[in-house]
Design goal:
Blueprint lengths: L5 E6 L7 H14 L3 E5 L2 H6 L3 E4 L26 H14 L3 E6 L1 H14 L3 E5 L15 H22 L1 E7 L6 H10 L3 E3 L9 H8 L8 E6 L6 H11 L4 E6 L11 H19 L5 E6 L2 E6 H4 L8 H10 L2
Length: about 325
């Protein structure tokens, strides 16, 4: 393998708080190790269309506390095709970019894995997703900030729920992973969390009604993972039909969950992972995600990071059930 001289960095897929801290860390760690740093705008789409410029230390000054991503992001249909990836490779060759750092979630790292296999390019992934659904890492960049945002919103909703004796169904992100719903439910003292990982076959709504409202509670908060078929609106409509004695409201938090200044935990995590990405390239690693397990930096093969869904620990589910009684 030729010696790496120039590294490209991009953010891809949904934005998450802490991405800018990761960009900053990757850039400064690369420069500190003698690499040339190229910033790629608008993710894989920008790579295909050569939206690239060189970054220096001053380009990442003052961004550690900013939400979103200064590189912007996009979902690229073209990169999903062999022709699109070939265009991206030609741009990398023309720009003399020898390795790629990709900050993103499951789809982004799947793209990096495929690209690396086809063109033998060293690719390093950073887990940038609010869903916390990548395997091999305890935490992903943006998860902690989003969890705190949800908790603060639910605390406010609780005030009006109590005042009006209502059931509130609060929909949060996490279509395929219930980490945000489950842990925000515990943090905010919600009565239930309805998540996609529930595999018992039981009716989650019936369990909630039977455990909570029917006993003594005059108002309740239920956190629901977003779903095109059975999100918060679905469960609210069911209550209206099946339990018309209850006053029901829905609050869909939407994209406000993605925004905001990253928490201290996310800034530290992103910074450590960003430095770890460059160290991985120095060590000759390729095609791995930089993760954190038991507070230690680890290298996770892409094939492991993007495999089937990451399980929620049973003790977390048990804690929610006990605390909501």
């Amino acid at each position: 393998m030729n010696r790496i001289k120039t590294i490209g960095v991009l953010t891809s897929g949904g934005d998450s708080p802490g991405m800018n801290a990761a960009i900053r860390a990757v850039t400064r760690a690369a420069i500190a190790n003698g690499f040339r740093m190229m910033a790629i705008y608008r993710g894989y789409e920008g790579l295909i269309h050569d939206e690239i410029r060189e970054f220096h230390t001053e380009d990442v000054s003052g961004i550690i506390g900013r939400g979103g991503t200064i590189l912007r992001t996009a979902r690229s249909k073209d990169f999903m095709t062999p022709e699109g990836r070939e265009k991206a490779y030609e741009v990398m060759k023309r720009r003399e970019i020898d390795a790629l750092v990709v900050i993103g979630g499951n789809g982004s790292l799947t793209g990096a894995r495929l690209f690396a296999q086809e063109y033998d390019i060293p690719c390093i992934g950073l887990p940038g997703t609010i869903d916390n659904d990548l395997n091999g890492t305890d935490l992903t960049i943006g998860y902690d900030t989003t969890l705190n945002t949800i908790m603060e919103c639910v605390d406010k909703i609780r005030d009006t729920a109590n005042s009006h004796e209502r059931i509130f169904f609060v929909e949060v992100m996490g279509r395929d992973a219930g980490f945000l719903a489950q842990n925000s439910a515990i943090a905010a003292g919600a009565e239930a969390a309805i998540i996609p990982e529930d595999s018992t076959g039981a009716d989650q709504l019936e369990q909630f009604i039977g455990r909570g409202i029917r006993k003594s509670k005059s108002s309740s908060i239920v956190i629901v993972s977003e779903s095109p078929k059975c999100g918060a609106m679905y469960y609210a409509e069911r209550v209206k039909k099946e339990y018309p004695e209850y006053d029901v409201r829905v609050s869909i938090l939407g994209h406000l969950q993605r925004g905001g200044s990253p928490s201290a935990a996310d800034r530290i995590l992103a910074s450590r992972l960003g430095v770890g990405a460059i160290q991985a390239l120095v060590d000759g690693q390729r095609n791995v995600m930089i993760g954190i397990r038991n507070d230690e930096i680890v290298y996770v093969p892409f094939s492991q990071a993007v495999k089937s869904e990451k399980p929620i620990k049973q003790d977390i589910l048990d804690a929610q059930n006990i605390l909501s009684t």
